[in-house]
């Protein structure tokens, strides 16, 4: 069976949650209250993101320079090489934003990878776009569940790699789940099957075995 990997970005490909770090360090006061509304599912990602990014007064170049300090997770380069060598499908699926995701991938010479995420453009303030929302749910800006469903409909065995809230829904439809951080806690609490991972060498070890 064909293999496909759906990989989260913030806190998965990167060591830290870059999107959260941008908000925490660069947004004006009020971002935390907005974030709590999102955590309590009183607002969705699109509303939360738009409200929080309205509090950021820095432009696109500033953001791109700011994210240059964030490291990627160990083993990701080797993981990408393994994916390419075996002609596996891989999609980076993020509920974050292209302005920093593409910049970090560029810094580490990962151009050409398929990325599905939300968009943030600066024009006298931040303008956000959410092009892969779900009409059924609407909580996430980027519906990763649809990405997994499309791959499975095309006959792929889907491996999901993630760490956060936006990974829960989609990962439950995948065939194999690698989880860390919040996603790992969720799977443990629900007593659902998953594989623990700290970095991509753990994933490589599994797929090579």
Automatic annotation (TrEMBL):
It holds the Pfam family Put_Phosphatase. GO terms for biological process: L-serine biosynthetic process. One of its GO terms (cellular component) is cytoplasm. Its cofactor is Mg(2+). GO terms for molecular function: L-phosphoserine phosphatase activity; magnesium ion binding. The keyword Magnesium applies. It comes from the Bacteria. Keywords: Hydrolase, Magnesium, Metal-binding. Belongs to the HAD-like hydrolase superfamily. SerB family. This is 2,3-diketo-5-methylthio-1-phosphopentane phosphatase. It comes from Clostridium drakei.
């Amino acid at each position: 069976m064909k293999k496909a990997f759906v990989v989260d970005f913030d806190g998965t490909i990167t060591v830290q949650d870059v999107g959260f770090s941008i908000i925490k360090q660069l947004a004006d006061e009020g971002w935390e209250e907005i974030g709590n509304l999102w955590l309590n599912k009183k607002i969705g990602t699109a509303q939360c993101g738009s409200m929080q990014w309205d509090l950021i007064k820095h432009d696109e170049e500033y953001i791109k320079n700011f994210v240059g300090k964030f490291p990627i997770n160990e083993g990701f380069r080797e993981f990408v090489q393994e994916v390419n060598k075996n002609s596996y499908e891989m999609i980076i699926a993020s509920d974050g934003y292209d302005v920093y995701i593409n910049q970090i991938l560029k810094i580490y010479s990962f151009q050409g990878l398929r990325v599905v995420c939300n968009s943030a453009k600066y024009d006298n303030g931040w303008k956000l776009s959410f092009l892969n929302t779900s009409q059924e749910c609407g909580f996430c800006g980027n519906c990763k569940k649809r990405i997994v469903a499309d791959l499975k409909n095309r006959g792929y065995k889907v491996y999901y790699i993630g760490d956060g809230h936006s990974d829960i829904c989609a990962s439950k439809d995948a065939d194999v789940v690698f989880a860390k951080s919040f996603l790992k806690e969720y799977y443990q609490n629900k007593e659902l099957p998953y594989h623990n991972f700290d970095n991509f060498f753990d994933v490589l070890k599994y797929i090579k075995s």
